[in-house]
# Entry
Amino acid sequence: MAYSLKVMDHYLHPRCAGSLDEPLQHIGTALVGSPLTGAVIRIQIHVDEDTQMIKAARFKTYGCGYAIATSSLLCEWLTGLSLEDALHIDAQAINYELELPPVKYVCSKLAVKAIRNAIRDYRHKHPVKMAS
Amino acid sequence: MAEKPVYLDHNATTPVDPRVLEFMLPYFTEHFGNASSRSHPYGLEAAHAVEFAREQIASLIGAEAKEIIFTSGATESVNLAMKGVFETYASKGNHIILLETEHKAVMDTAATLEKNGAAVTILKPESNGMIQPDLLEAAIRPDTILIAAMYANNETGVIQPVQAISAIARKNGVLFFTDATQAVGKIPVQVEHDGIDLMAFSAHKMYGPKGVGALYVRRKQPRVKLTAQLDGGGHERGLRSGTLNVPGIVGFGKAAEICKQEMAADTKRLAKLRDKLEHAFLQMEEVQVNGDTNHRLPHVTNITFRYIEGDGLMLGFNQKVAVSSGSACSSALTEPSHVLIAMGLTADQAKSTLRFSLGRYTKEQEIDFAIKAISDTVMKLREISPLWEMYKEGMDLDQFNWPG
# Structure
């Protein structure tokens, strides 16, 4: 299978790989996938509580080059985004940007699931105060 | 470093030895005759060349020339042996025994025979890849006609206890067929000493050309009979019709001759390089060698690098080092290797596994280069693997409830 130049670039030079050091209450984390299905993605986001902006995002991924590139691109996009905008990132945008072959759409779907779960985790720690 | 990637995938195929090529070339042009056209010098010349090659090949495996049937390759030889025996010995029985670690050619031929009425028993190996002879003996029934057990495995290099298997076959009056594609030319394979009745092998795994193989068919004690699978001009004593691939056969013969002469020296040199490669990888944590290391081809090693995914691992160095994950025949699919699964590896362990197979032209600096390229990739990918982090934190990943 031929890898696009963009996939190779992210694979060889992953952006935002690693873990966040901030106190846990400022971080949303998600772990998705399983070794048996071929990919496990962990995404962490550091959120500014006042602005609801993502200050930093980090990933660790077990998987093929596509899974690694997908996670890397997503974290690059997340940095500086509002939680609301981050929720609206869809898998198709990743497929398009990385020129993923259809059999690898599962990778972008998994990455999007990871960011949504990470946001849910953060919001679970910081319930939104309803206006009265 | 050379521009070309280091080739450590000799179990998939080998380059043609230049001495073999030189020997073949005149048979494409000057000596182009059809080996069946014995009425004129062109045909006779070709026929003599074929018979000379038959002698060279027979000599490598300790057989008689008449016991060698030329085919298009090991897959055809496997098909001819198994289907040919099944049809010929139908009155005696329909039960066939094979190992779970056989090559796809054997597995799929058995599956076809099963559809045509064969009863097939597939035996599980020990975790070291070797079959327990007791298990084999217990599987034999009055209607068993054939045991198919490969000589050496293409993925792990594990060598089966061939003499124990053939002794059981003999004792029970069952024919013993071995797919020796990876073994012939690499280690001493002797059909008499090993008690082999039928044996498939191929030129392109031993520095000969692609598209030519052989089936050894024992002619006495017992005399093995086969039903031909191709109809036509009755070449190869009626067992394999079709104009002989004279240049290919000539090259096969020369390749066999060179293997016979150089086997001992090649084996010694390659085992040393293979051990160097293996030891270097074993310096890393959570790396394991699959298969019995005492009964193994000298140029092969099969290594699992845990907590990183196989495709991702390959991508890191596959422009620099050519190896195979699982079996080359199925690497277009992402199915884990059935051989490693049979030996008890989990699917993800099997997928994190690489097969290295060295060859006649492998140099020590190429091994050093491969060690560095692959170790670097393994370390880099573990650095970004959540599984590696979890393992390092002491979690038991086999018990972990994955979110999916």
The radius of gyration of chain A is 15 Å. The CA atoms of residues 16 and 58 of chain A lie 5 Å apart. Strands of chain A lie at 27-34, 39-48, 53-62. The mean pLDDT of chain A is 93.
